[in-house]
Amino acid sequence: GHDAGDNLLTSITLRIQQSLRRTDTIARLGGDEFAIILENIHLPEDVVSVTKSLLENLGKPVQIHQRDVYVGASIGISVFPDDGEDFGNLLKHADIAMYRAKETGRNTFQFYAAEMSAAAIRRMELENSLRNAIEMEQLVVYYQPKYDLKSREVLGMEALVRWDHPEKGIIPPDEFIPLAEETGLIVKLGEWVIKKSCQQLKHWQQAGYAINNLSINVSPRQFHEQDLAGLFEKVMSETGLDAQHIEIELTESTLVQNQVNAREVLRQLHAMGLRIAMDDFGTGYASLSYLKDFPIHTVKVDKSFIWGIPTDKQNMAIVRAIIGLTSEMSLSVIAEGVETEEQIEFLKDVGCHQGQGYYWSKPVSALEFERDILKKS
């Protein structure tokens, strides 16, 4: 609550003061951000010494209401006059350096460098462009097919968003999804993908194609901040899709972040008839108990394990163990990143029934998916 937060800020302020000289200045800028002015510093090493002392003191537990609370700090440093000759520029550059410290793992410090400003400007331009892209519908949904490993028939597809930039062409998701997640744009972007891909699936079904499984990735922020059950209920009503034809893909870290909230959201989605898939299984933080405690229907074996087949014995052992476990629990399992016939034969031998990857097709536009995959299946 607010009282505990105020007590924490007071304790942190005292610790900062204890780490400084009487001639230094400390100010709280707002929230949990503080500014410190160190005067008569002649060498960068002196700043490092003070900064390390700050981090050490702030890393010790703080007792709030008879409980130990642990906090950390990310510190950005700008130096007069090299990094600015007025307070505004010095503060701005220290702020940029602070965010770089956060990016490098937190609980650390970073000196400002000119290239940071250039990176910050590029990031701001990309963020503004992404906002415009969402408004102007420059985004496009690509689809990657999922196959039955024995019959080689198309079982469904995974929806994957791409950015069709008017100047740069198709921008892959790893260049803008992390930014969208950080800025909160992922909520609006994710909602658009859900609506667009569900409309496309309904269109294909009405056209007579026997396709009844659509996987949609839901980001951690979207999962915890958006009313997903309400959104899917609205989309199902508008499109007339059967909920059991939709599979929501979540990473393990999404479930770890807030287990109580995750359990309730999954309960709502499960009650609607939607299927739940755990994506990138084996690379996150979830324990095997998550497969038992949450209403999971499908496990996707991460491609990093598949790529080592058939030469990496450890990867093969991991894949064999995952498939054996999921089979015993009556869960569906799909292998990602399948690229060779040898991988398919191994997966079939160990009981995996589904796969997706470049062996069959990379993600393609809706037009290409219909022309090259649906019409030929």
Description of the molecule:
- This protein has 15 helices and 16 strands.
- With 377 residues, the protein is α/β, with parallel strands linked by helices.
- The strands form 4 sheets. An 8-stranded mixed barrel has the order 7-8-10-11-12-13-14-15, surrounded by 4 helices.
- Strand 5, helix 3 and strand 6 form a beta-alpha-beta unit.
- Helix 5 crosses helix 6 and helix 6 packs parallel to helix 8.
- It is elongated and about 75 Å long.
- The N and C termini lie far apart (58 Å).
- The model has no long low-confidence stretch (mean pLDDT 89).
Pick out its properties.
single chain, 377 residues, alpha/beta, eight-stranded mixed beta barrel, two-stranded antiparallel ribbon, 16 strands, elongated
Helix share of residues? 40-55%
- Residue stretches low in confidence (pLDDT < 50, at least 5 long) are none
In terms of DSSP E residues, the strand content is 15-25%
| DSSP strand count | 16
Q: How would you state the average pLDDT, rounded? A: 89
CA radius of gyration is 25 Å
Spatial arrangement of strands, main beta sheet: 7-8-10-11-12-13-14-15
Largest sheet: 8 strands, mixed, barrel
Number of helices: 15
Class from helix and strand fractions: alpha/beta
State the shape. Answer: elongated
How far apart, in Å, are the first and last alpha carbons?
Answer: 58 Å
Quaternary structure type: single chain
